[in-house]
Design a protein that fits this description.
single chain; alpha+beta; two-stranded antiparallel ribbon; 1 helix; 2 strands; 37% helix
Length: 46
């Protein structure tokens, strides 16, 4: 699970998946980054 907990009032789970290898797939990282940017934008922090 990749998650974000840097906001004091909430914990946002950006992406959850079953990891089957040592390396995290680029698509999973990119998806979590995109969702993080969406959360920040909706909170008006950008």
């Amino acid at each position: 699970m990749i998650y974000l907990a840097s906001f004091p009032e909430a914990v946002y789970i950006l992406h959850a998946f079953q990891k089957k290898s040592q390396v995290t797939a680029r698509k999973d990282i990119d998806l979590a980054k995109a969702r993080y940017q969406t959360v920040v934008a909706k909170r008006g922090l950008l």
